[in-house]
Structures are given as C-alpha cells and as structure tokens.
C-alpha cells in the first residue's frame, strides 16, 4: 500500500490527502443528516444570532489566516530566492566562504574577497562546454545601486536579451537594470564603495552614459548598473585586460598577463553535466573554489526547514488552543438557543435531528471561518511579499499551495469532530431546564 | 505538526489496510568481503569503504536509510591517473534501475535530473554529495536499514567496479567516516 502511495503523482497524492482530511466531516454529515433537511432551521439560527455568529466566524478566520499566511509567505520567500539564483549555474571564486560569494554574486551584497587571476579566467572561458564565463567586478555604486563591471554577454544572458536600447560599444557606456536609478541617455559618475562609506569624489571626471535598460528580472540585479569590466579596471588605475595592439576591444578574450583580476566568475554551460565536470576541475585547494548557488541555497533551506518545523509546532499548539476555544465558543452559542432546542425536543423532534441542527450550525460557522481564513492568509502573505519585494528587490509572490489547503482542511476536520460535543451535552440536559432558560 | 498528524490521519483514513510491518525484510546486500580492489575496511563492521580500479579511487560510498522506492548514493571519485575517466552509470541487483543525477533548484524545490555521464579530469576528483550530484537507484526491492551496507556496480570508461556503500541515517549529510583519509591504504 505504501509503495502504491509513493508511485502516485504528487498532484494525486495532494488531492487524495485533501479528500482523506475532509472524509471525517463528510462521514459525520452522512450519519447525522441522513433523511433530515435542517437547512431552514439553521438559516433562521444564523440570522437570529447574526452578530455573535459573525464574531465567531471572524475569530476563526483570523486564527486560520495567520497560520496560513506564515506558511505561504515562507514558501514565497524560498521560491523568490531560488529564482534570483536561477541564472547562476556555477560560480568560481577564490577559496573562502560560499555564502559570502553567494551574497555578493547573486544578491549583490559584496564584501572584500581575493581576486582570481587572468590564467584562471582564461582556463574557464576557453573550456569546452562553457558558453558564458562572466567576470564580475564589484565595489562601486551610484545612488545606492551597485555598479558592476562585467562582459556584454552577461547582460544579454541575465535579461534573456530583453534590453531596450543597445549593449555598450565604448568602455564608458552602461546598461542599467529595470529598477536602477538611471534612465536611458542619463550620465552618471559612480562612487567608490557602497552605502554611507562610499567615496563620492573618488572617480571624479569619469562619466558613464546609460545606453541600454534591461527588462525586469525579479532579482536584486534589477537595481544594478552594468558597465564593461575594462572600465572598472581603468577607473581604478589598472591595466584594461588587452594589449595595446587590440585597439579599443571590449570584452573577451582577455590577455591573461594584463588581466588585473576578478572576485568572481559566473559560469553558464551548454549542458547540466558540464557543471559538475567544471566544478570538479575548478575546486582546487588554495587556488579556486567552485560552487553551485542552488546547493548553498538548498543548505540554507535545510536550516530554514528546522525553523519552519519549530514554527509548525508553535502553529500546531496554537491551533489546539483555537480548537479548544472553538469548543467553548460553540457551547456558549448553543446555550444562546437552549430554549429553541428544548422546544424542538418538547415537540417530539428525534434526538438525532437536534444533533443534526446544532452540528450543522457549528460546521457552517467553522467552514465559513476557514474559507475566509484562507482568503485572509493569502491577503496577509501578499502584503508581506510586497513589503519584502520592495525592501530586498527579490521578487516574492505569495500563493496558496496544497500545504495551506491541507492545514485548513485538517483544522476543519478536527473542529467538526469537536462540534459534536456541544450537541451531545445539550441533549443530556432535561428539557424542562431548557424551556425555563 | 498539525499538518503531519493530519496527513498521517488522512492516509489511515484512505488506506484501511493495516500498516505493513517492515521487520521481516531481507538484507538487499550481502557481504562485501569478496570485492576486488578493496583497500580499507571499517574496523567495526569489516565493510570496505575505499575501492580502486586502475587509477580510479572510490572513497566512502554511502547512502541513506530509506523505506521509499528511491535511494541516492554518494561518494568521492578520484582520478589519480593522467587520462580522463568517465563515470557512465551504475547498477545494483536490489534496484530496478540506476542513473547519474544532478541537483537543480526550481521554484524553491530541489530535484535531481538525470545526466548522461560525467568526465573526471586527470588529477581531479568528482565528489558525489547531497544537493549536487549523485547516483539514484529507483525501484528498490527492500528497505535500506541504517547501519547496513549495499553492493553496487559503478560503470566507468575503465570498466565496471564493484563497491559497497554504507547505509547512514535517513537524514545524514555525509559518510560517518568523512574527513579521515584512506589514501595511505593505496595499492
């Protein structure tokens, strides 16, 4: 049976799980409601105590929405981060921390790292199966945006060739990301460094003209301004990577002896397998470090997964508390119409009919609260995602997934079972007590 | 926690059949003592964990305990020769099929994609490790219990190599002996 379960496609597993979770509710409904139509009576109860019902539904919606919003948001963040790293198959850097290089190359949070030599760059760039070997030179900024030196192919690759204007043809031309603080045709002088410590006058006299603007990618690179790596070297008083005989050549091939160095090389290969062969070749002690940003992120998710588990335990405990409150709330609500149910019983209504009315009434409120909670959760996650996207430039999109639907269904199933209790308690009380209430 | 409990509840609701006891499974592996090219043995279990085929050295093969239909096997492959060696695939009698797989992260979810073959340059090593590259065995005939070992055959451009992989814990991230060298045991 377990083998059969594993062989099912994920969609079928998720759908069956949902059916399985809702099965107890349907079973109780079939047993309790068989032969009865308590609809009109429930409608009357809902209208008669509409404010108490509304508060009850809203409380359930809030509790379900908070749990669901958290889970949806966490997944949205995970997907957003993975998409930001999507274009970075393999990164080669000097030996050090993979996380530091991931933050620098993918999330544009550079720190001082050793440089790779021209010989290393040439070995990677000329390796068979390597389509793009893009050197990245960080360190300068303009109005808070990173100004990154690289090659034209990287701009094309990063934006999937969706560039308004054109690529640079001169060392002092730039291609800006969609959210960079410059427009086509603008000129700017980069500051040396980032943030408050940036030296504004360090590159006085150097002016770049924006000749291209990349389409939005949903990654932190949307705020970056790309310039030819030759310009970065020249502005810092270094060789430009080419011999004099090369004239005004921009981009590879570079002369290994005249290559001042690069902190990182982003590698894109023609086939997936080539990444592993390259990683094997460029993982050299004391020389180079090659890593997959996807793997580093997966490791990070593993740690986040532990946090997520702690969060689920807390959320689980909260749901238990909520279920207990629901039970209490339903008991209070059923007390509100104690007189009406006693009247029903005095008129000779079967016990099962009274249970059917009270249980269906409770489940109607619970189902409405849960459904509203799903919407509320999506709304909360959308708002949080919008905030994260604006603060980090990582495009985070919230959506409802199976996990959230399962959580809501489990909540509904457990609380529906509990809803039988107030009905049973009410039936144990003498009819005369109810009539006097 | 709630969703896990509810998932378990749902599976029970759906499958009225009693849970299958996994106590009486047979050990899919046998003894690894007759492998050719064995270089080093575990001092406690007597299972080899370094192997060689010509200039190809295989150190610390391991996998994770599993009850599921798939298992991923990891190891260090070291090319000590002066010509490239290609890892072309693997096979085992306790699994229906095997493939080299590479890890990719799509939409925040990691998955393994089949790869044709991977060349190992002379003087370099290819590390098969979680979330990077691995050998995936599908259609496993019996669960792999923690603490045991499984036999498998590596297919390379040099020929086939029989090895035994340690079965580590279900959530292990590395071979329990990782970090201690077996190079001094070389042939």
TrEMBL record, chain A:
Keyword presence, Cell membrane: yes
TM segment ranges: 15-37, 49-72, 310-333, 354-387, 407-427
The keyword Membrane is annotated on this UniProt entry: yes
InterPro entries in the record: ABC-4/HrtB_transporter, ABC3_permease_C
UniProt topology in membrane: Multi-pass membrane protein
All copies of domain ABC3 transporter permease C-terminal, residue ranges: 314-430
Keyword field: Cell membrane, Membrane, Transmembrane, Transmembrane helix
Domain of life: Bacteria
Secretion signal, residue range per the UniProt entry: none
UniProt source species: Roseospira marina
A single GO cellular-component term on record: plasma membrane
Protein name per UniProt: FtsX-like permease family protein
Protein's cellular compartments: Cell membrane
TrEMBL record, chain B:
UniProt keyword Signal, yes or no: yes
Keywords: Signal
InterPro entries: LpqE-like, Lxx211020-like, PCuAC_sf
Signal peptide: 1-21
UniProt protein name: Copper chaperone PCu(A)C
Organism of provenance: Roseospira marina
